[in-house]
Amino acid sequence: MRNRAVGYPVLMDSLIAAAARALAAGDALGTLKRVALRDDPPALALRGIAMAQLGEHPRARELLRRAARGFGAHEELARARCVVAEAEVALAMRDLGGSPRALAAAAATLEARADRANALQARLIAVRRLLLLGRLDEASAALSRLDARGLPPALAAVAELAAAELALRSLRTRPARDGLDRAQRAADRARVPALLAEVAEARAALDRPAARRLIEGYEHALRLDEVAALLASGALVVDACRRGLRAGTTWLPLARRPVLFALARQLAEGWPGDVDRHALIACAFNTRRPDETHRARLRVEIGRLRALIKGLASIEATERGFLLRPHDGHAVVVLVPPIDGDQASLVALLSDGAAWSTSALALALGASQRTVQRALVALETAGTVRSIGHARSRRWLSPPLTGFTTILLLPSALPPG
Q1: Which residue from 134, 294, 320, 404 puts its CA 20 to 30 A from 127's CA?
Q2: What is the pLDDT of residues 307-351, one digit of tens each?
Q3: Helices in 71-208 by DSSP H: which ranges?
Q4: Burial of 14 (0-12, 13-18, 19+ CB in 10 A)
Q5: Can you state the percent helix, strand and coil of the chain, rounding each to 5?
Q6: Long-range contact pairs involving 112-115 (C-beta distance under 8 Å, separation at least 24)
Q7: Is residue 229 assigned to a domain?
Q8: Is 408 contained in some domain?
Q9: Percent of the chain at pLDDT above 90?
């Protein structure tokens, strides 16, 4: 009896170790086979992570919370690891509304206990959350503080993927390609299928059309590197992806001034000719029967737009309407999204295959939940998105958009600079 009592925990520890090895190799089912019937905290934590890898995120979160509660006060390191795992599940569930303080505290605990790999995992989760929210400056600062040298291949690949995504969102295609090459090499060493697929998808985005260029009545599809070259060319670009005007390093955001942006786009689409006043009124004010009040309002709004863009171009009145004339003889180009519609950014977020809550979408887009809810209902009616669950558990999904990339439609995908 005594020998069996001594041997039993050794057997259980060996099962935990074998389950952990299977989990590290991406074998979630192998992990569950070893610990599915156990309810001790280490087994609960491994089961939770395995369920997350299988896409059962609500169940995974429940198991990880039970594991964290089960660890004693002297097991601070184990609890911190559970917090990190739960944060990654929350990220996969697109639950972005929680405070990042718990994750930061867990990362500090892990660093203090010399668990460098899990500490870096916590920092990378925080970076990926910032990227989803479009807070690129904060993500860049956080990434610059990370040291991924000497880490396991899987973590190194995740770190390189995060850096490459930041570069893609900023339209720095050369650093993005270099980062993806490094991520590919690390993923090859890790041999985790999901990680290999993520790297392959990111690499494919570089070669897909990312936007459409309209100039003098003609339309051309552009890849991300071609968009970057266009923005650096000095042309006056009316950017319908980010809703603003760009010329060289000058960026004028007009996302919160829809009438001025509508006028700027209409004038740009008519360049090098002028645009009829009736066409401008119909576009900016959504009316087909203009009266004198609309014509007066057009003059006011044109005056506001003229003052706003005076450093980039002038707007001249003609007998028929108005003419946009850029300074220094530069061309005028309209950059439009690869997909049409006022909800293009919303569709782009949903096309990542994850199930988003309304609150997370509102947080990422910087809009009110009521506005996002109305847009989602309209998209659901059109068959573009679908919902699952009810009330607080309701989530929104959209089929992946194939054939082009939606990088330019994501929050802060093209920051000023």
Answers
A1: 404
A2: 999 999 999 999 999 999 999 888 999 999 988 777 888 988 988
A3: 76-92, 101-112, 116-132, 136-144, 153-169, 173-190, 193-205
A4: exposed
A5: 60, 10, 30
A6: 113/76, 113/77, 113/80, 115/77, 115/80, 115/81
A7: yes
A8: no
A9: 62
Give the pLDDT confidence of 117-135 residue by residue, as tens digits.
999 999 999 999 999 999 9
The whole-angstrom separation of Cα 45 and Cα 40 is 9
Residue reference for tokens 């530069």? 330
CA-to-CA distance for 243 and 222, rounded, in angstroms?
18
Q: Are residues 57 and 192 in the same domain?
A: yes
* The pLDDT of residue 11 is above 50: no
The pTM of this model reads 0.84
Considering the domain architecture, whether residues 107 and 227 belong to the same structural domain is answered as no
Residue 55, exposed/middle/buried by CB under 10 A (0-12, 13-18, 19+)? exposed
In whole numbers, what is the pLDDT of the chain averaged over residues?
A: 89
Confidence band, pLDDT 50/70/90 cuts, at residue 6: very low
For residue 193, tell me if it sits in a domain. Answer: yes
194-222 exposure pattern, b = at least 16 Cβ within 10 A, e = fewer: ebbebbeebbebbebbbbbbbbeeeeeeb
φ, ψ at 188 (rounded to 5°): -60, -40
- Over residues 136-160, the pLDDT tens digits come to 999 999 999 998 778 889 899 999 9
Instruction: Clarify whether residues 132 and 50 are in a common domain.
Output: yes
Residue 393 placed within a domain: yes
Nearest Cα neighbor of 396 from 94, 58, 87, 88 is 94
Cα 125 to chain centroid, rounded: 13
The HSE-up count of residue 185 (CA atoms within 13 Å, CB side) is 6
* CATH number for the domain that contains residue 108: 1.25.40.10
Q: What is the mean pLDDT of residues 292-296?
A: 91
pLDDT at 181: 96
- Which of 43, 113, 27 minimizes the C-alpha distance to 77? 113
| pLDDT(170) > 80 | yes
Alpha helix stretches (DSSP H) within 206-343: 224-231, 258-270, 277-285, 292-308
Residues contacting residue 223 through CB under 8 Å, at least 6 positions apart: 206, 207, 208, 209, 210
Quote the number of domains for the chain: 3
82 contacts 64 by C-beta, under 8 angstroms: yes
